[in-house]
Amino acid sequence: MAHNIVTVLGLALLVFGVFVFFSAVLGLYRFDYALNRMHAAAVGDALGIFCVLMGLILLHGWSLSAAKTTLVFLFLWLTSPVASHLIAEMEVVTISNIKKECEVEER
Amino acid sequence: MFILFFLLWLLMAGKVTLAVCLWGAAVSALMCGFCRRVMGYRWRWNRRGFGQLRAVIRYLGNLLVEMLKAGFVVMKLIYTRGRDMEPKLIWFDTTLHSDRARATLADSITLTAGTITVETREGRVCVHALDASLAENIEKSRFQQELERLEA
Asked: Residue A105 domain-assigned?
């Protein structure tokens, strides 16, 4: 019984993760500016990856593969913000008039 | 640090044999030496280490919850085609002093969908927010408060 519940939960997370990735791709088309599109992609990086990998861990049970999957979490979440910083910085530095795309506020 | 590298080696190897352990010990020692000499890492015993470990775990838990919550908020914006969305680029001062704490704050902000750290320079942080509501009180965020406590 418990095994069935865990399997259903794992499958639900996996399917929801795929839906999150679909939403992220849809966001890339719906948003109209590079920095806004990066936020859509970030949904896949955070929520999508979490749901898919947690689903896989639940489906496989706690094993060596699950431990390696946890490492995938760690490395993805350590490296993806660094790539995002660089792309965002490049966009802000190279755009001729950032104020046309978004409000700039100094606090 | 040696133990961490060695455990990582065992995890990637997937089995524990004499050959794997010997190679693992040699590679871990080499990596340890590289990190100490080239990157300047030092392992220091800290009496507050246990308390700090609890605070770090709590911080990571909060980060995970915030990441998941922000993911749902941005998904909602995607499906409403960003109706009434106000993207903003915000500069604010951080009260954090160490480079490590500032980098952690910047990474935490970026991992939370809806906000991306564009730049950190001399205590000033530049954040792009998909909507103004996502950047309310960002300069007094929970991440910053917890990092201040960890830094103290």
From this structure: no
Cβ contact B71–A46 (<8 Å): yes
* Beta bridge pairs of residue B119: B126
B74-127 pLDDT tens trace: 998 898 876 678 888 999 888 888 888 899 999 999 998 889 999 888 888 999
Which of A:67-106 have CB within 8 Å of B? 67-68, 71, 77-78, 80-82, 84-85, 88-89, 92, 98, 101-106
* Residue A32 counted as domain residue: yes
Tokens 């755009």 sit at which residue? A95
Q: How many domains does chain A have?
A: 1
* Type of residue numbered A86: L
Asked, for residue A71, whether it belongs to a domain, the answer is yes
Q: Pairing mode, if any, of strands B124-129 and A103-106?
A: unpaired
Convert the pLDDT of each residue in A44-78 to its tens digit.
Answer: 888 899 999 999 999 988 888 888 888 888 889 88
